[in-house]
Amino acid sequence: MEIKVDDLSGGEVIKLLEEHLVDMYATSPAESVHALDVEALKSPGITFFSGWVNGELQGCLAIKQLTPRHVELKSMRTSNSSRKSGVATKLLTHALNTAIEKGYRKVSLETGTQKFFQPARNLYEKFGFTYCEPFADYELDPHSHFMTRELVEKFV
Fold first, then answer.
1. Within a domain: residue 105?
2. Where in the numbering of this chain does the N-acetyltransferase domain appear (predicted)?
3. Do residues 79 and 47 touch, judged by C-beta distance below 8 A?
4. Which residue from 72, 77, 94, 115 lies 20 to 30 Å from 103 (Cα-Cα)?
C-alpha cells in the first residue's frame, strides 16, 4: 500500500470522508460527533494521510497537533471494500511513526462507545493505547471513549 500525505483535493478522498461523517452522525448524537469535515482537515496543524493500492483508495487517517509534543488521531477510516484487510493497521503504523519522526511523544484519540466502534477500539488497544480522561477541549461524554499512549520507539 502506498501511503501519502494528501491535500484533500481528490474526489475519492472527499467521498470517503463524507461516508465517515454520515456514519458518525448515524451512530452518535450530533453533540457527540467530533469528526472533522474536509475544510477543517486542511488546517495547517493537521497532516492527512491516504492509503492506495493499484490507484484505489483504501483508507485515511490524520494527525492533529495539540502541542509541540502531543498529537491527536482524527478521521481514521477504511473503505468498505478494504475492511479487515490490514489497511487500518498499516495507516496507524505509518501515522504513529511519522509522529515519532516529527518529535511528538504522546498521541491521544476520541472514539465512540457504541458497538460500531468496537473494531477501532480493539485496534487501538492492540497498539498499546489505554483509556484516559478527556484531553484538549473534550469533556466527559457517555458516547465518547478517550485513549492515549506515549510514543517512544518506532512501530514495525
1. yes
2. 12-152
3. no
4. 77
